[in-house]
Amino acid sequence: MKPLYNLLQKNVKWQWNDECEVAFCRMKKVLSSAPVLAHYDPTLPLVLSVDSSAYGLGAVLAQRYADGSERPVCCASRTLNAAEQNYSQLDKEALAIVFGVRKHHQYLYGRQFILRSDHRPLSYILGPNKGIPVTAASRLQRYAVQLSAYNFKIEFIKSVQNCHADALSRLPLNPTRNRVKCEDSDCSYLNFVQENFPLSFKDIKIETAKDSLLSKIYGYVMFGWPKTSNIETEKAYFNRKENICVDQGCLIWGYRVIIPKSLRLSILKEIHDGHPGIVKMKQIARNYVWWETLDVDIERTVQECVACRSQRSAPAPALLHSWPWPEEPWARLNLDFLGPFNNKYYLVIVDAYTKWIEVDHVSGTSAAVVIDCLRKKFARFGLPKRIVSDNGPPFSSAEFKKYLDINGIRHTLVAPYHPSSNGAAENAVKMVKRALKKAQVDNENVNTALSKFLFSYRNTEHSTTGCEPAMLMFGRRLRGRLDLLRPDTRDLVRQRQEISEQRRDTALRVAEPQDSVLLRDYSQNRGKWTEGTVVRRESPVSYTVKSQDGRVHKRHIDQILTTKHPKSRFSLSKVEEEAYDITDTESMAKPDTDQDDQVAEEWQLAQESPPSRTVSERRDDNTNRQQATTPKNRVYRKAALRCIDKLKEM
To answer: Looking at the record's lineage, which domain of life comes first (predicted)?
Structure first.
């Protein structure tokens, strides 16, 4: 009609062309053809097309013929009220579906039909593959519940092909205009019954008369109920006797037909058509039929159906059963792969005891790559007792099994498609993947970001153990840059150590070979000290000493009294101390050379107790004193010893 409309526009020159001729002929053909609307045929497939606009809803119910053509059976439209006009486009399209289905309920209820919409999201939300999301708005969930009573297959159609429903939505009828009001007595409903339904009202009447139990109940209804009933099969009917009646030879309880036993299997098959499930089968049955064991028979029918049993939903999750806590660190490891992430794979290892995580970039997911990575980890931390992993090819391979058997490691494979059994590794993979994605957002190097994440994770208290993984693994936290904020205690410790050593002794005691000393005697019935001679010096504080009886002893410097320091509290005796303080140079075989005079002066200075010094200074003095000891210095010591021996003989 567009070419003809163009001729009617203002300031357009009249020109009849070929397009106008074709449009004119097509219009005459349409006007001379049969009416567009077709009579409803229950044997033909039904197609319901819906659409919505900013202010209206439209729906067209059509039936499809054998040649593929479609003719409408009924059209409907209405305007949106003020609240509905504020709906989102998704809610408007869903409202159009609900409007079209409710409007044509008498045609659609109880049979399958095709539902067409030009809004693609609804084909996924209301489709058979996915249910309504739990996060969807409550309005959309209510629409889904209302539509669940119908058997339809939703299809997406382009807006260009949905022009008839689109036109109705843009030219909606006013709901209060041209509406005919009639009395309830003038209203009648036309119900469509499929001719191929296996049962009819007459069949139920005939079988009711043949059924021994229902025929007796029929007599009770017609001629009166007994006061009591002791028959077990009659109790269910006796309890409902007030609501049981007879209509055209059939027993009716409320508005539900009581089915005889011979027809119950056929009714169950009809209700189970489409495999709706136990709950929906009970809902359908409670609208039409009843017998005393209806619910039990429905449950048994669904449980025995092979198709329903093969597509059952997963059972309720079992009670949480945690892994036993390992006895020590690195005893049980959980393994899993992360990737591909930027075309890279990572092997994630979690210690179940400390929650310590190891992440390594691997070149592939083969068993050889996994073994090589584990070999490096075992060289650092040792062999674990058990490894837990999924059923991936590298973990279930014979090569990996052989490697674990050689090293005495038990391998536990979790159930397939049940990642929660390896939850420690799965959670670690999630955390690492999240850290890598954050690095991408910050344009940070992936390896650098991974190292930072692992350092922070290992030094942070874990929610399960209540302790840092590094503390459980190494007994200490990892030193980080934040530790620089704390004051350094090394200087304070060094000062306290020097004070303690000064209190211990103000002079270092040294004994040389051939020195006469008193050594501690631990023999019974003998004195506390005995005389001896130093044989050799084993270490700065350990000596080998020979006693007068010829026995050789190993003594610490604290177990020896030397004669080198006359003012020391470790001198032999008061007499010996006086022997060291010799002022008569003639009584000592003193060398005559000037060099010997210098040595004697050094010897005299060495007898004096040095002032209090630090540990390092005293150690330097000790070393210098040892180097200054020469054979010439021993002359004075031997003279002093000879004097001591003479004093003892007196």
So the answer is: Eukaryota
Segment 462-467 long-range contacts (CB within 8 Å, at least 24 positions apart): 462/355, 464/355, 465/354, 465/355
Could you please state the CATH topology (level 3) that the domain comprising 29-177 is classified under.
Answer: Nucleotidyltransferase; domain 5 (3.30.420)
For the beta sheet containing 56-64, the strands, ordered from the edge strand earlier in sequence to the opposite edge, are 70-79, 56-64, 46-52, 112-117, 151-156
Among residues 564, 561, 566, the alpha carbon closest in space to that of 581 is found at: 566
- In the chain, CATH 2.30.30.140 sits at 508-649
DSSP states of 232-274: GGGHHHHTTGGGEEEETTEEEETTEEEPPGGGHHHHHHHHTTT
CATH 1.10.340.70 placement within the chain: 201-309
Cα–Cα distances in Å, from 576 out to 281, 533, 573, 601, 650?
Answer: 118, 16, 5, 20, 13
Contact present, 150 and 126 (Cβ < 8 Å): no
User: What's domain 332-474's superfamily in CATH?
Assistant: Ribonuclease H-like superfamily/Ribonuclease H (3.30.420.10)
Amino acid letter at 410?
R
CB burial of 589-605 (b: ≥16 within 10 Å; e: otherwise) equals eeeeeeebeebbeebee
Place of tokens 């357009």: 12
DSSP line for 555-590: EEGGGEE-SS-TTSTT-S-HHHHHHHS---GGGS--
Q: Yes or no: say if 39 and 105 are a contact pair by the CB < 8 Å rule.
A: no
Query: Tokens 């000879």 label which residue?
Result: 642
**Mean pLDDT along residues 315-332:** 79
Share of the chain above pLDDT 70, in %: 78
What digits encode the pLDDT tens for the residues 384-430? 999 999 888 999 999 999 999 999 999 998 888 787 888 888 899 99
Please tell me the class of the 508-649 domain.
mainly beta
Pair type for strands 344-351 and 542-547:
unpaired
Check the CA dihedral 283-286-291-292 and report its sign.
positive
Q: Where in the chain is the domain with CATH 3.30.420.10?
A: 29-177, 332-474
Residue with tokens 């922070």: 456
Three-state SS at 609: coil
- The answer, yes or no, to whether residue 169 has pLDDT greater than 80, is yes
Measured CA distances, 555 to 241, 316, 531 (Å): 114, 77, 13
- Residue 578 banded pLDDT, cuts 50, 70, 90: very low
CA dist., res. 241 & res. 253, Å (int): 9
Q: How far apart are the first and last CA of the chain?
A: 155
- What mean pLDDT comes out for the span 475-504? 78
Closest CA to 49 of 140, 131, 133, 158: 158
- In whole angstroms, give the CA distance from residue 279 to residue 585: 124
Q: Domain 201-309 belongs to what topology?
A: Endonuclease III; domain 1 (1.10.340)
* Residue 82, CA distances (Å) to 86, 93, 195, 385, 560 in order: 7, 16, 44, 70, 110
In 75-172, alpha helices (H): 89-103, 105-108, 120-125, 138-147, 163-170
Interstrand relation of 289-290 and 410-413 (parallel, antiparallel or unpaired): unpaired
Where b means 16+ CB within 10 Å and e means fewer, 220-257 reads: beeeebeeeeeeeebeebbeeeeebeeeeebbbbeebb
Rounded to whole angstroms, the Cα distance separating 26 from 22 reads: 6
CB 346 within 8 A of CB 360: yes
